[in-house]
Amino acid sequence: MPVAACLGAVRVAAIAFVAIAATPLRNAADHVPARAGLPPSSLAVWTGKAWREWWRSDEAPDRWRGPHNAVADAVRWRVAANGVEWGELRLAGTGEARRLRAVVARIDPRVVQLRLDTAFTPGGERAAWTVDDARRDAIMAVNVGQFVRTLPWGWVVLDGHQFLAPGSGPLATAVAVDSSGTVRWIGPESIKDPNVRRGVVAAFQSYPTLLTADGEIPVPLREPGRGIDVEHRDARLGLGALPDGRLLVVLTRFDALGESLGSIPFGPTIPEFAALMGALGARQAVALDGGISGQMLVRDADGTHLWRGLRKVPMALVVTRKP
Amino acid sequence: MSYAYSTSARSLSRHGIAVAVVASLAVPFHSAHAQLGGLVKKAKDRVVEQQVANQVDKRVNSSASDPGAPPKFDDVTVELTNDRVAQIIRGLTAGRAVLDGANGSPSRATLIAQRDAAANQSADLSQKNSKAIEAYTVKRDESQRCRNNAIHASREKRQQANDQRMKELQAKAMSDPAFREKAIAMAQKMAVAQQKGDTAEVRRLMIELNGGAPESDSVDSLAADKACGSLPAQPAAMVQSEKLNALANKLTESIRQLEEQAAETEVKESKLSERQYQTARERIEAYLSAMKYNSQPRGFSAGELQALGARRADLEKVM
């Protein structure tokens, strides 16, 4: 058979498979007709037996109504402590994202305590927090927010006191913890209302929003030219909310030669990462500082698991047992 | 297996196996697939799925030979040539000058010193006057509780009076056709005013219909004042401490603004676009971090390693 015919057959087969693969067992996502938009790319997940393609840029859904079975089932969850579970999954994408690993954690804020820790060098010259500095009683810790040079961007509340005023931006999301331990997600409009900010004991802001309150992917993430670079690849870190109120943390790592190259900032595009958050069941999600900043710690019965970043950061979300 | 650094080795746990078994059993089985056509289709699906899986495998495994290869250079990730490294150093130097006060504002170090002084002074005041502040807090909380109860009682009383008035008006509307007609006419006028966004007119019509203005919420506060007295005055040290805290917060904001100005200057002076600059800066940080810990920098071309190596000392100075 001529090579062209072979390639043609593979392409037809691939398209046929995508059509099958794109029909989820549950009605997980709202698919839309193809549109001139996202650069061509796809994501496959390792199911334990084979790679299964579950997302394509030309068939990207506008909304996630529930997890994608293939992705959600690929995670083998392990209990770190009561209220904290974690796991990993392997992904294959396009270009530099051809070998990725995603570290995922689920946190139940009703069971554990959430706090923000900050760290700066003496004199406040530089940010200084790394996972290696996480407090000893941390079950899980991850860098949060974004920062320009030293101080975090946007709204920061520490121990009930506003440390930094809110920032503004159409895709900025604030995550706030109130005195009862309830986590609130505050959008760019609501943050202007001081009443919304009352009673908060810990809060930070980040961007861009990956999924809005109903699982919808914001328009700037669906096509180029709307203020978000939909093509750039980087290591990603995100925080999401599951429908039952638990938090979902996802950190992507470059997965060639194991974790030794994990901190290299190769990874998915922002639209791909939004899809990953949706496919893992998040209804609401925001990107945190990924790239060389992304870092995470989990402590379980087996010991301490560290995914280090290459940069020190100013602030981290730390999960501890309730006193 | 996890590739994370773990303090102890581990293998697939029994719990993991159990979860995997349960997960495999939990996959729904579609009735259509139970039919012969469904089975044939399923077999075809498997073939197609395998072909796609092979394609992905090929793509994934092709990277294993050179995992630290440079990224694809494009409009955002630009190659760090000698010229570009020089541009970035120029940007970083200009940004550092802004932090040092080159644009006329206090330097970052000065702002930090002022902020820390204010915060320390505030903490000192609070500590020295802790007894007075604690006494005030207790008294304030007592007063607040009393006021909350009084406000609640006053509001209840007003609500009951309003409910009674509403019942009377409803009864009047049932028994008095003239009043009923008037109420309907006024409701229509209110709807028109509402559509126009004329809240003053809506309020005027409401007052006319109710036969008088409702009592203002300030009545509740007055009732609380009468029952509990005013809130106790804050001790002078506490007022001063709060002022110092506000000053510290303001200075923190100023530090952040100065950092943002410095970041903007860096981009401007580098002559790169913001995205190009931020990506390049991040890659340089990764390079310096690898060099600092004597590990091989990954994800750079040979030319980039040469250019970065030649200016490493300069980069470390200004980063």
Which SSEs are present, and which pair or pack?
The complex is a heterodimer of chains A (323) and B (319).
Chain A: H1 3-21, E1 29-30, E2 42-46, E3 51-56, E4 63-64, H2 69-72, E5 78-81, E6 84-92, E7 100-107, E8 112-118, E9 140-143, E10 156-158, E11 161-164, E12 173-178, E13 183-186, E14 200-206, E15 209-211, E16 237-241, E17 247-254, H3 270-279, E18 284-287, E19 296-300, E20 303-307, E21 315-321
Antiparallel strand pairs in A: 1-4, 2-3, 2-6, 5-6, 6-7, 7-17, 8-21, 9-19, 9-21, 10-11, 10-14, 12-13, 12-14, 15-18, 16-17, 16-18, 19-20
Chain B: H1 14-26, H2 36-61, H3 82-99, H4 108-128, H5 130-175, H6 177-196, H7 199-210, H8 218-228, H9 236-270, H10 274-292, H11 302-310, H12 312-318
Helix pairs in contact in B: 3-9, 4-9, 5-6, 5-8, 6-7
Produce a short descriptive summary.
The complex is a heterodimer of chains A (323) and B (319). Chain A is mainly beta and 323 residues long.
Count of helical stretches of chain B:
12
Query: Which oligomerization state do the chains in this entry correspond to?
Result: heterodimer
Please give the largest β-sheet of chain B.
Answer: none
Give the SSE order of chain B as H and E letters: HHHHHHHHHHHH
Secondary-structure element pattern of chain A, one letter each: HEEEEHEEEEEEEEEEEEEHEEEE
How much is the radius of gyration of chain A in Å?
Answer: 20 Å
